[in-house]
Every structure is written in C-alpha cells, then in structure tokens.
Specification:
Elements: E1 4-7, E2 10-13, E3 18-24, E4 33-39, E5 46-51, E6 58-60, E7 68-73, E8 78-83, E9 92-99, E10 112-113, E11 117-122
C-alpha cells in the first residue's frame, strides 16, 4: 500500500516557477515508477512527466519538455516536479501517481493517486 500527498501548488505569474512535491508512505516506494498528471475541468487527465523507480529515466509530455523536470529522492520517499517558465495553459490540478505496471505515462498504469494540488498561472 502506498499513500501519496502532494504539496507546493499555488498561484504564480506567467514565466514564474513552482516546485511540486509528492511525499509517499510505504516501504517499497523505490519499486514504483512515479509520475505527475494534470487535469482541467471537462478534459481527461493527462500525463505531464514520469520517472522510473531508480530515477534513471524520465519521460515528458511534449508540452512541458524543456520547462519541467521530474526527479525523486528514494531516501526521502519523495517525487518532485520543478516547473519553470510557466504558462497560463499549465493551469490545472496536478496529481502525483505511482505504478508498477510499466512506465506510468497513462492513467491505466497507475496503482495509486494523490489527492491533487491546484496550480494556477496568471497572464
């Protein structure tokens, strides 16, 4: 069983930065691939970034590549999402996710979800 708790969301101006954190419970956290998804009302939840259990490989959506960085610290059982050069279209609820069934780039591969944190980027 893994529980995920996000923090770090908020309101920021376009061009600014935020860092999201996802604190996990459970003894086998490093066995899980980690990921961040986001969702806006009326749209499907979409993958933002994913990272393997070891942290060696990361994946990014085209819309955030070069601006966002996903990382993890298994000793602290935490996954991070550093978001730079934020745009108004990045506004969404961001969800942390963990899964063991392949790279966690689709909701179908997610075993556990966090509760979500709101990110709002003003123009």
């Amino acid at each position: 069983q893994v529980q995920l708790v996000e923090s770090g969301g908020g309101l920021v101006q376009a061009g600014g930065s935020l860092r999201l954190s996802c604190a996990a419970s459970g003894r086998t956290f490093s066995a899980y691939n980690g990921a961040w998804f986001r969702q806006v009302p009326g749209k499907e939840r979409e993958s933002v970034a994913a990272i393997t259990g070891s942290g060696a490989i990361a994946y990014y959506a085209d819309s955030v590549r070069g601006r966002f960085t996903i990382s993890r610290d298994n000793a602290k059982k935490t996954v991070y999402l550093q978001m730079n050069s934020l745009k108004p279209e990045d506004t969404a609820v961001y969800y942390c996710a963990a899964g063991r069934n392949g790279v966690t780039t689709t909701p179908s591969r997610v075993d556990y979800w966090g509760q979500g944190t709101q990110v709002t980027v003003s123009s």
